[in-house]
Amino acid sequence: MAFSKTIQMYIFEGNPNGRIMCELSNWNGRIYKISRNELSEFAKRKDSENTGVYFLFGKDESNFDTVYVGEAEKMFTRLKQHLKEDYWNDCIAVISKDNLLNKAHVKYLENKFYNIALATGRANVLNSTIPTCSSISEYDEAMLSEFISNTKLLVNTLGYKTFDSIEDSSIKAGPKQLLFYIDGARGASSKGVIVPDGFAVFKDSKIASSTVPSMSAPLIKLRTSLIEKGVIDSNFCFTKDYIFTSPSLAAAIVMGRNANGRTEWKTEDHKSIKDIEEKL
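^ thats the sequence. predicted structure below, dont judge the formating
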């Protein structure tokens, strides 16, 4: 059973693009969102050298989200070392208010967040090696499981979906979650669901085996990229659940042509997204 949460958020100098501090009631964790050019201001905080994990967010040459997952015994000192790298613009640092986390804890957290980011597929993970997972006690594992859950919640609240799976976004809505389908030309046969940040197409859904001549160049480029990255295999099937920014983008990739997702995606009883929204 999911419970409602109370979040405390402090926006430094009233600038939401600079530094933000977040906490949850009855949790000893603390999260800082820090823009790259505000890192020197973060250094002035008493807890800036606490032990913790951090995430560096940016965009690649295709404007796709990227993330680097790291750990630090002294947070600011480690983040400062990353200033020589230009692949990131924003950082999220996760610490405990009482500096409870030790090296084994943060190595464990680093490994778990790395694997979560890989599994969700919402960002390219830039780590060159797989972080080592420390051996910890059952007591620590229980404590860190809550730490991971609360961190995911706050990171999502700050606008970063990197660690959110489709189950996190949609399945929690309950059994009344509507499923939508497309059965189209050239073998297209897909199933998906509306999620808060777009439209998710499920694993094993199949896209059209070819595209029409009128399909726009950006859509063809995206389709090619998804195939090259292995999101879609040689049989034109999705290898994992994949979230698109809109139903129309999802429909276009599935059907191999420009498409209006609000009319193309339909429930089992043939109601489109447009039909359902207009009855709200």
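The radius of gyration is 21 Å.
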